[in-house]
Amino acid sequence: MSTIQIGDKIPTFSTIDQNEKVVTEANFKGQKTVLYFYPKDDTPTCTNQACNLRDNYEQLISAGYKVYGISPDKAKKHQKFIAKYKLPFDLLVDEDHAIADAFGVWGEKTTFGKTYMGIRRTTFVSDENAIVTEVIDQVKAKEHTNQILG
């Protein structure tokens, strides 16, 4: 499956956030959006990325962005991650990786010589019409906000 590209519409999806509130692609309409896919809550690189977005959240809001993170973790794990690091944005649940599949970011990965299936860390920025305006597939966790606002 190919990755969503600049100019593509955000794929149709329905999931829940950390509070089990339903979120769909319709939530993206009328607002510039940052949707960042990451492998797992409370791991070093994922934490660095989330905290970079947290620390620069006012800049993102000032630029007109709504931020969502998304991973295969359950809602309760997202709640703990948000509380532990005081994250000001919602985290979406993708336990069956259907949304990651739709965006083309679920696939084979290799870490320390071990090959497995998982999320390829990728961020999609969309405009008010839910059209992708930027795809960041070489995410620098500690500089992610700069990559988005670049």
Strand order of the largest sheet: 5-4-3-8-9
Question: Mind describing the biggest β-sheet?
Answer: 5 strands, mixed
Determine the N-to-C terminus distance: 28 Å
Number of helices: 5
Mean pLDDT: 95
The rough form would be described as globular
Under CATH, the homologous superfamily reads Glutaredoxin
Low-confidence stretches: none
Question: What's the number of structural domains?
Answer: 1
Output the helix-strand order: EEEHHEHEHEEEEH
Q: What is the helical fraction, as a range of percent?
A: 25-40%
Given the helix and strand composition, which structural class is it?
alpha/beta
Counting DSSP E segments of at least 2 residues, the number of strands comes to 9
CATH architecture: 3-Layer(aba) Sandwich
Strand content: 25-35%
CATH top level is Alpha Beta
Structure commentary:
With 150 residues, the chain is an alpha/beta fold. The chain has one domain (14-149): Glutaredoxin, CATH 3.40.30. It is 27% helix and 30% strand. It has helices at 44-55, 57-62, 75-85, 98-103, 144-149, and strands spanning 14-16, 22-24, 32-37, 65-71, 90-93, 106-111, 114-119, 122-126, 132-136. The strands form three sheets. The chain has a five-stranded mixed beta sheet with strand order 5-4-3-8-9. A hairpin with a 5-residue loop joins strand 8 and strand 9 (132-136). The longest helix is centred in the first third of the chain and has 12 residues, at 44-55. It is globular and about 40 Å long. The two termini are 28 Å apart.
